Amino acid sequence: LFPYTTLFRSSASTSQFERFSGATSKLPVGISEVSVDGLVGFSIKADPDFTLGDVVTKKVTDHAEAITNISTSATQEAGLERMMAKVEGIWKATALEVKPYKDVKDLYVLGDTSEVVAGLDDSLVTVNTVLSSRFVAGIRESVDAWKQKLLLFSETLDEWLACQRTWMYLETIFAAPDIIQIGRASCRERV
Predict the structure, then answer these.
(1) Which of 37, 60, 132, 169 has the most C-beta neighbours closer than 10 Å?
(2) Global confidence as pTM
(3) Rounded distance, CA 152 to CA 17, Å?
């Protein structure tokens, strides 16, 4: 009975039955890329007529270890996909705060970015955690793309804030009335 319970626990534990049964998924190193259907020689889709007797007569338990490995990989990959879905959800709900600069019409600057930076840091930690998993093979391409997007956004935000700080500092200097007078006088002399 033990091989049967192990087999059913493996097949029931995965939320990705399509990957588990019919399709192949990219499995961690050391586990060959093969589907459960390929192992047992027939389709194991959710069939209401499929019985315990079919498992015994078709010798499905001969492949219990491989099925368990495939199931574990699919389950772990599903967990990684859920982690990445949370990252995507964070960025769908994130907006940059833009506020008016002084009382100048149509002139805006970025407001507080602390929540955005915190979300960015959390997202990068999550992405790096996913990338370090041995079960990432099936979703590596999309996770790498997210990492690149987040790193680019981080660099862009840092540059934007540095430019904004410098501009705000210089704008205060050049908007001073005495500097404006010196500039006007200088222009008159050149003309």
Answers:
(1) 60
(2) 0.73
(3) 36
